[in-house]
Amino acid sequence: QVQLMETGGGSVQVGGSLRLSCTASGNTNRFNVIGWFRQVPGQEREGVAAIYTVGGEYYADSVKGRFTISQDRAVNTVYLQMNNLKPEDAAIYYCAAAHAPGGRRWALTTPLYHNWGQGTQVTVSS
């Protein structure tokens, strides 16, 4: 099993920035992609960004150009840099691990992921 821990959530004003971190431990050799997902109460969980452990980054259209996903293999951590935050970005953000064939379609597909973190709250004040 892989354990995931998200940190970095908080409250920012519109236009502000946050950096989320997802650190993995355990059997980290059992997945090839890490994704960031977000969920508002009453709404479906949606894929935000994902990165393959061998390289390749993918983004939802709604965050393209504002968010950047990256990884630091030395500390087994994936980051999500969120810039120019908007009210619609407010949600609980979850980190998840999965096996995927490759490409954007699978990396942002929620049912593909089998291991999830506890979530971190992001609030955007207008």
Q: Layout of helices and strands, plus pairs?
A:
Elements: E1 2-7, E2 10-13, E3 18-26, E4 33-39, E5 46-52, E6 57-59, E7 67-72, E8 77-82, E9 91-98, H1 103-107, E10 113-116, E11 120-125
Parallel strand pairs: 2-11
Antiparallel strand pairs: 1-3, 3-8, 4-5, 4-9, 5-6, 7-8, 9-10, 9-11
Short description:
The chain is mainly beta and 126 residues long. It has one helix spanning 103-107; strands at residues 2-7, 10-13, 18-26, 33-39, 46-52, 57-59, 67-72, 77-82, 91-98, 113-116, 120-125.
Give a verbal description of the structure.
- By secondary structure, this protein is mainly beta.
- Helix content is 4%, strand content 52%.
- The longest helix is centred in the last third of the chain and has 5 residues, at 103-107.
- It is globular and about 40 Å long.
Strand composition percent: over 45%
Number of strands: 11
Mean pLDDT over all positions: 95
Secondary-structure element series: EEEEEEEEEHEE
The helicity comes to under 10%
Q: Describe the main β-sheet briefly.
A: 7 strands, mixed
Shape: globular
Determine Rg (CA atoms, Å). Answer: 13 Å
Helix and strand content put the structural class at: mainly beta
In DSSP terms, counting alpha (H) and pi (I) runs of 4 or more, how many helices?
1
The termini sit apart by 40 Å
Runs in which pLDDT lies below 50 for 5 or more consecutive residues are none
